[in-house]
Each structure stands twice: as C-alpha cells, then as structure tokens.
C-alpha cells in the first residue's frame, strides 16, 4: 500500500499520559478515572502492536508501554517495519501539523524502509509567508510572496493539502475574492493577530479569515493544476477545532462545480461519518477521490463494516489508502493492518457469495491499496524530480497479516 496521508512520529520515550493523548483525536486527557486505552483503538494497539514488540496479544496497557520504553527508538523501527511487512511500500507525509514535534518524511521513510515524500499544507505556507512579510513590514506583498513560496515548495512535493475544514468549514463562498479584498483581509488579520499577542512574544498566525481561506484555496487550485498536484482536503472526523456538520464533503459541492473546468483532482481525507457522502461524490464527480484515513484505526474491529459502506457506490478507481497516523508508529502499523484485514474480510465474503470473482477482489485490493494513488499522484513534481517511478516503489500487495 501507499500511505498517501501520514505524519511523522515522535522520536522519544512517551510516558503513559503523553501516549494516551496521541490515541484520542480530541487531544485532551481522559476524564478522571477513565483511560483512552478503553476504546476500539486502545484494544487494537494491544491486539496488533503488542506482538510486534514481542508481547502477547491484548497484554495490559502498562505492560505494553513498559516494553515500548525499554526498546526506546527501536520500538518505532519495529512498528514501522511491521507496517512495511503488512504491505506498506511508500508514504506521502503531511508536514504542516506540529512538525517540530515529529520526525521528517526522510526519517519516517528510513525507519520504515520505504520511500517517503512531502505533502505541502497550503495554510501553513501562507502563515510562514505572512510571518516573514510582517517581520519585514511588507504586508502588502504577502499575496505575491506566498504564491511564489507555494510554487517553490510544490517543486519537491507529491501533493497539496488544505485544512479549511478546521479553519472554517466547507460552507465558504466558492468565488475567488478580488485582489483588493485580499489585501484588506490580510491587513485586518495581521492587525488582529498583533493586537491579541502578549507583548513579549510574536503573534500567533493562524489563518481562519473566510476571505483569506477562499484566496488560499483558489491559489492552491491554480498551483495544483499547473504542477499536476492533487489537492487533499480534510473532511469529517477530526479534533475539537472543527464543527463536524460543516465538514461533510457534500458541503463542498459548490466548489467542485466552480473547479469543474480546472481538471484538478480533489481527495477527501478521513470522511467518517460522511464516508458514504464522499463515496457518492467520488461516483458522480470525475475529479473526486477519498479515503477513510484515521477512521479505520478508531473504529477498530468495525473496519470491515466501514470499508463495505465506502465501497457501496464508490467506483473502485476512487478509494485510496491512508493511515493518517500522527505521532505514534503504532498508528502507521495499525492503519495498514486495518485496511488489509478489513478489505479482505469484505471481499472474501463477496467472493464466497458469488458477487465477485477472486480476480475482481484482487483488483479492488490493488487499486485501493496503491494503484489509485500511483495513477493519481503520477505527475507530481516531487516524484518526477526524485526520479521515482509513478508514486514511488512499485511492489506487489503483501500477504494479509
Ligand atoms: Zn492528517
């Protein structure tokens, strides 16, 4: 499989509270007297990651974390190599989220023994350009400077990603704002950020202004189209920054219509509980792709049911694989296991009941696991610049663990 949406992992021993923060999307400690281990994901870690570290399946959390601490850095390597053993052949790494706390794409690839490339988060590039422009007192130049910076970053990237879902939701006016509106919005945004910052620290630049988000999406679409980079959009399941009902992929439909002539592939990530809506869009709109991302890790033993729902109306050419792992190597491994096992459970049932041939089932597996990602990202400058074949290392699907 190609994990087309993943983040770096933390390279330090994690005490139990820090580990638990990374197995719940909310990012808050569990209420007093409870544990994030008491969940589908907690059980999946004990079931599928404990044996990788030489422990019995379903051992208690403290036994698991004790062994993990003993192993140190080696635990990350073992878990990532186990993901490769489960079929992982390449990773497309989003570097825009808490990048200072996790390893780089190169380090992740080296630990897993697979090639890795960067997916550039467009809002982060905008904020980086804004910080530089503000420090130099050249705020009016921001629209041009960020467009140039994004084009430069795109040259080594495999895809672009937007977190507009977290910053506002998909219910944004789908027209591009006029240049004058953008300049006014930039000045207002930076003034508010400076006014809200404590005197001794630089302002925190987090772009959530609707005019600027529209501008960022249109510029990202232009760069994606020019440089043949698909645009990933977070949808559905995510942390407390988002209003779930506003990140249903169907809310983005007016944008798909506005971008119809651009021929820009749009990939909705995660999607749960709107994976059926994403599957519908993928069936109707030629430009739309989707994955189940971290949802498969969080639904644990229910992964086959969610995959079956995703495959109800979606063309086989539109579903992709990702783990959306952040921080923990466990999540990279579990994502691969959940996808391989879940898909196998669904497809073998359909083959047994005579709905598909075994050849059909293999075709679904190889398309969703890697074939669709290879085709979708084949033109990305990062892959072309590195001399890789389409979407990295080719390889047959690995056996089901
Ligand atoms: Zn992510």
Ordered list of secondary-structure elements with their pairings:
Layout: E1 2-6, H1 16-21, H2 40-49, H3 61-71, H4 73-85, E2 90-94, H5 105-112, E3 116-121, H6 122-135, H7 142-154, E4 157-162, H8 164-167, H9 179-195, H10 210-227, E5 231-235, H11 253-258, E6 266-270, H12 275-284, E7 288-291, H13 295-299, H14 303-310, E8 319-320, H15 329-352, H16 358-376, H17 381-385
What does the model show?
By secondary structure, the chain is α/β, with parallel strands linked by helices. It has one domain (2-11, 89-385): TIM Barrel. It is 48% helix and 9% strand. The chain contains 17 helices and eight strands. The protein has an eight-stranded parallel sheet with strand order 1-2-3-4-5-6-7-8. Strand 6 (266-270), helix 12 (275-284) and strand 7 (288-291) form a beta-alpha-beta unit. It starts with a strand and ends in a 16-residue tail after the last helix. Mean pLDDT is 92; it is low at 389-401. Bound molecules: zinc ion. Zinc ion binds next to loops. Pfam families: Amidohydro_2.
Could you say which structural class the secondary elements and strand pairing correspond to? alpha/beta
Query: What Rg, in angstroms, do the CA atoms define?
Result: 21 Å
Model regions low in confidence, pLDDT < 50 over at least 5 residues: 389-401
Largest sheet: 8 strands, parallel
Which small compounds were modeled alongside the protein?
Answer: zinc ion
Number of domains: 1
Order of helices and strands: EHHHHEHEHHEHHHEHEHEHHEHHH
Instruction: Summarize model confidence as the mean pLDDT.
Output: 92
What fraction of residues sit in β-strands?
A: 5-15%
User: What is the number of E strands?
Assistant: 8
Strand order of the largest sheet: 1-2-3-4-5-6-7-8
- The amount of helix comes to 40-55%
CATH homologous superfamily title:
Metal-dependent hydrolases
